[in-house]
Every structure is written in C-alpha cells, then in structure tokens.
Amino acid sequence: MEDFLFAFLNWDIVTQAWPILWRGFLYTLALSAMTVPLGLAGGVVLALLSTSGPRLVRLLAAGWTDVFRAIPPLVLLVFLYAGLPFAGIDVGAWGAVALGFLLNTGSYYGEVFRAGIESVPRGQMEAARSTGLSRGQTLRHVVLPQAVRNVLPDLVSNTLEVVKLTSIASVVALPELLFQARQAQNATYNATPIVAAALAYFLLLWPVVRLVSRLENRALAGR
Amino acid sequence: MTHSPPIIDARGLWKKFGGLAVLKGVDLSVAERELVFIIGPSGSGKSTLLRCLNRLEEPDDGSIQVDGIELLSPKTDLNAARRRIGMVFQSFNLYPHMTARANVMLALRKVLGQDKDQAAQLAARALDRVGLAERMDHYPAQLSGGQQQRVAIARAIALEPRVMLFDEPTSALDPELVGGVLNVMRELRQDGMTMVVVSHEMAFAKAAADRVVFMADGQKLEEGPPAQIFDAPRHERTRAFIRQIDRH
C-alpha cells in the first residue's frame, strides 16, 4: 500500500510537477480551442456537400468522409508532420495538428451533421422554398437550426472525443497535458504525474459528460 | 366566370417518376379570383399537378404561366416567382423552432427584405386575419393542428401572393378542427384570392368552388361547375368516385 501511494499518489511529486502539468493543461485547452471549431466547420461543409451538392460532389464528399474516418488519426498526424516535408511541404507541428484534425474530426462531425440534416423532414425545405427563400437561405434559417438541435447530444459527445484526441499532438512534440505528464514522469521516476493528468482530463470533461446525459434525457423526453 | 386572361395557364404537363407517368399532358387554366377544386382518386396526379404550379415538382414537358411569368423558363427568377404563389401543405410544415409570428416573418424579412419592425407588424396582421392574433408567440408544438394550418396560411398570405395553392389542407386534421381552416379559406375567397385546392372536402367544394376538375390516371377526365360534376357527372369514373366519396 505504501508503495502504491508512493508510486501513484505522491503529493510531493505533484507539487514539483505542477508548473509543467499546468503548462500542458493550457496547451490542451489551446489545442481544443483550435481543433473543435476547425472540425465543426469542416463537418458543416462536408455535410452540406454530401446532402445538397450535385451528384458527383455528393459522391466525392462521401468518399472523402470514408477515407478520413478509416485512417487512424495518429497515422495521419505523423504523415502530415513527418511525411509531407519529403514533398517539400512543411506545415509545422501546429499546422499538422490543425490539418489532421480538420480532416479526421471534420469527417466525424460531418457524419453527425449529415444525420441531423437528413432528420429534418423534406416538407420543411419545400415550405421554405415555396415562400421564395433560396436554397442557401433555407439551409441556414430552416434546416440547419433543426438539424443541430436534433443531433446536439452527438455533437457534444463527439467534441468530448476530440478533446481527448488532442493528446496525440504529443507525437509532434507539442507539450500538451499528456506530453508534459510523461516528461514529469521521466524526470521523477514516478507515475503520479500521469494520474494527475488523468484527473485533470476528468475535471475538464466531466461537466461535458453530464451535459450530454442531460441533453439525451431531454431529447428522449421531447419525443 | 370572368373573361380576363387566365392567371394560371398550364399546358401539356408531363411528369414521370421513374418509368411511371403521373401526369400525361394535363392542361389547367385558372382565371383571376376563381376557386378551382381538383379531385380524384389517390395516385391520379392531382397533388403532382398542384406542385408543378410552383415548381416544387419539375415537369418533364409542357409550359406553365403564372401571373404572366413563364415558370419553366431557365431565365425566370424562381424565388421571385414563388413569392406570388402561396402554398399550403397537408402536413402544415411550420418551422418548429420558431414562434408562429417568426414563421410568418422569415420570408417577409429574407425574401421581401423588410426590416424587423415592419415584418413583425405585417406578420401580426396576417395572423390576425386567420384568427390567431392571441397565439402569435406560441411555438407550433403548442398549437392544435387546425391552428398550425392557419399559421401556415398566414405565412403564405403575408407575402400577398396572386395565387394560393392548397394541397389537401384539411386531410391531416381531426374532424372538429376542419371547420376553422375552411372558414379561413372561405374568407380568402371572399377577399378575391385566386385559389387552386386539392381536397376531399366535397361540401366545401359544392358551396365555394367555381369549377371542379376531376383527374384520374394522370389525366383531366372532366371539369365543370360543382353542380355538374357532383350531380350529373358525364364520365363513369367520375360517377364511381363521387359515389364512393359520398358514402363517407
């Protein structure tokens, strides 16, 4: 028991590693603040293309979504960071993360938005168009607000996954929370920083998890 | 009937879904201020015909003029044309995320470009016309089916269309709610609105229609004043259909 506490819940280590962990936490927040909006924007564009574009565009969007959901995000990120420079394209660590998340999580968000758009009855589009609204106006004011509402729990749920996935930025040497925790672990020969990192993720994401549950309950009640 | 040029003039409309011809060269002309009822068995093409008149359905062949606009011409600004053609649907199709008033305001603002105050005022007036001034701030889910359909009518008439199309406006309503919607339609008619109605409300047709069109198998089989179609139909199919409807 003594050994366990020493190795995993060592308060001295926490106080020592605190500044490093805090910096990692801030990086994780910054990475999330970049990747979530990018993924959402990419997702909306993909969903609109795959539901409302001409036939060829719809097929291309569907294929794109398939490809980037099938490629593991870690592989994609390493390729963008370490592979592209061989083609003379160096996007840097932040660039690789931005691009990788745009491609990967954009595709996941795209599928969520697509399900949302398809859940809006055709009659909504018809009613709006019959009053003279253009296709774009109809999507913006009538279809998308309902689509988002219908898939809100899935959107938030997906966002949780995205925040957790930002830990892969450690492979391109961005000092996010997990990266920093491992640095601290290596420096102290103690696993407590990893436990502290897990706790930090939990404190960050638990309110969001609760939010998903509440949204899901409300969606069930509204049915 | 008046002798002014028709406000709707559709000729030779063809529409196929897959291999199935739903409209087989249908003509329909409607005079200003006229109320035309289209009846017929399900699958006769009556709803498709109506939906061609504002191009929610794209005819494969034929021509449609509404208020002097060539609806099928590629040069036509379809969105501009559609605001002169109001449409009311069987399932109301109100926007569930907006209040009754916001439902009416959307096109006033985005299509006619009115500012918020002006649109709010006109929306209130339109809702008052359908007897729902009190319910302006309710969401569709808080309204009965009949009230929702009246909001849908307000949404259409607020744009001051030249023509109103009704696609089975009372079919989704409980019987006790039908009257309110028909009353609103009756008032519209008295105000001189040109209306094309697809519906099974035969009593309303008898009382209010100028002309009844009977369709079957994608063709116009017979048309005339209600008295003629209901009491002395010429076609055997028309007779059979009227008999069946009357039994209900």
Automatic annotation (TrEMBL), chain A:
<keyword id="KW-0472">Membrane</keyword>
<dbReference type="InterPro" id="IPR010065">
    <property type="entry name" value="AA_ABC_transptr_permease_3TM"/>
</dbReference>
<dbReference type="InterPro" id="IPR043429">
    <property type="entry name" value="ArtM/GltK/GlnP/TcyL/YhdX-like"/>
</dbReference>
<keyword id="KW-0813">Transport</keyword>
<feature type="transmembrane region" description="Helical">
    <location>
        <begin position="191"/>
        <end position="209"/>
    </location>
</feature>
<feature type="transmembrane region" description="Helical">
    <location>
        <begin position="20"/>
        <end position="49"/>
    </location>
</feature>
<comment type="similarity">
    <text>Belongs to the binding-protein-dependent transport system permease family. HisMQ subfamily.</text>
</comment>
<dbReference type="InterPro" id="IPR000515">
    <property type="entry name" value="MetI-like"/>
</dbReference>
<dbReference type="Pfam" id="PF00528">
    <property type="entry name" value="BPD_transp_1"/>
</dbReference>
<keyword id="KW-1003">Cell membrane</keyword>
<keyword id="KW-0029">Amino-acid transport</keyword>
<protein>
    <submittedName>
        <fullName>Amino acid ABC transporter permease</fullName>
    </submittedName>
</protein>
<feature type="domain" description="ABC transmembrane type-1">
    <location>
        <begin position="25"/>
        <end position="213"/>
    </location>
</feature>
<dbReference type="InterPro" id="IPR035906">
    <property type="entry name" value="MetI-like_sf"/>
</dbReference>
<keyword id="KW-0812">Transmembrane</keyword>
<keyword id="KW-1133">Transmembrane helix</keyword>
<feature type="transmembrane region" description="Helical">
    <location>
        <begin position="70"/>
        <end position="103"/>
    </location>
</feature>
TrEMBL record, chain B:
<keyword id="KW-0472">Membrane</keyword>
<dbReference type="InterPro" id="IPR003593">
    <property type="entry name" value="AAA+_ATPase"/>
</dbReference>
<comment type="similarity">
    <text>Belongs to the ABC transporter superfamily.</text>
</comment>
<keyword id="KW-0067">ATP-binding</keyword>
<dbReference type="Pfam" id="PF00005">
    <property type="entry name" value="ABC_tran"/>
</dbReference>
<protein>
    <submittedName>
        <fullName>Amino acid ABC transporter ATP-binding protein</fullName>
    </submittedName>
</protein>
<keyword id="KW-0547">Nucleotide-binding</keyword>
<keyword id="KW-1003">Cell membrane</keyword>
<dbReference type="InterPro" id="IPR027417">
    <property type="entry name" value="P-loop_NTPase"/>
</dbReference>
<dbReference type="GO" id="GO:0005524">
    <property type="term" value="F:ATP binding"/>
</dbReference>
<feature type="domain" description="ABC transporter">
    <location>
        <begin position="8"/>
        <end position="242"/>
    </location>
</feature>
<keyword id="KW-0813">Transport</keyword>
<keyword id="KW-0029">Amino-acid transport</keyword>
<dbReference type="InterPro" id="IPR030679">
    <property type="entry name" value="ABC_ATPase_HisP-typ"/>
</dbReference>
<dbReference type="InterPro" id="IPR050086">
    <property type="entry name" value="MetN_ABC_transporter-like"/>
</dbReference>
<dbReference type="InterPro" id="IPR017871">
    <property type="entry name" value="ABC_transporter-like_CS"/>
</dbReference>
<dbReference type="InterPro" id="IPR003439">
    <property type="entry name" value="ABC_transporter-like_ATP-bd"/>
</dbReference>
